[in-house]
Amino acid sequence: MRRRVLLLAALVIGLSLSIPRAAFAAAVTIDSQTRSVHVAIPSIVEGEAPIDETTTAPDNNPFTATLDRTLSQLEQTNHALASQDSSFGDTSDTVFTAHATGETRYSATGVTGIVASDSNFALSFTLPEDRDYSISGNGSFVDTTAGASNFSVQLSGPGGTIESFTKADFDPANNDGATVPATFSHTGTLAAGSYTLTALSGVSGGTNTTEILATYGVDFTATASGGPPPPPPAGIPLPAGAGPGLVLLAALGAWQFTRARFA
Question: Residue 159: is its pLDDT beyond 80?
Answer without folding.
Answer: yes
